[in-house]
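Two proteins were folded this term; both appear here.
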Amino acid sequence: MDFVEWDESMSVGSDVFDGHHKIIIECLNALIPLMGKSECSAEIIEVMSRLEEFVLLHFSEEERALRLCGYPDWRAHKELHDQMNDLVFKLKSDVEHGRALEAAYLHEILYSWLMKHILGDDKKYEPYLPK
């Protein structure tokens, strides 16, 4: 599996949110070296903890900005964020409680959600952001 590289096609028109997305991608990329290792649950938990902490911050800031700029679908967007928060928490909890989850599985689930979210859901608010 290759490292994910952020590119301009992922831009949502906000340097702040683009920067946040880059950090989230870095967290996902941190799972790649752990793929195929048999004893790496502590490392996976560390990566998942960083991801969980950062997505909470990012989602909070993004939701606030969407409300302030008058984005009409901010509530639906928040619901998507809540679903991702729940997913990250559940996956991290599974690893913490001894459920063996491969780093590749975690990366695939989270990467798929993130790319769909950035390229689909987040792109919808771009016209509403102040320039």
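Next, the second protein.
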Amino acid sequence: SRLLDFYFLSRVSSRTGDKTQFSYSAHTFSEPRFLKFLTAYHQVYPLSQIEIEFLPFAYRFFLLNYVIREGARFFRPDLCAQFRRDTAREHLGSSSRLDLTELLKIVS
């Protein structure tokens, strides 16, 4: 699904960036820059409500695959351990509580 890349795109468009604190938080889905990107994307490649509702699952897949499963390939051991811990303790649980209200407004 094309939505598998949307979390990465939300991170790229994030004002926060990864300059001082590196996190895999889902807050980037609700940042103004990502909402602006999604609005422009939707005008060219229309998205459905079902696709937006799938985003928490795509985010969870990203966390499980990229951070948990493959993290050791991308990060130093100390960072990998920290990111895996943060993912297990915080981010996976928060994926089921994502507020999609603003994203759904874009496609309605």
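Residues 2-17+26-107 form one domain. The mean pLDDT is 90. These notes refer to the second protein only.
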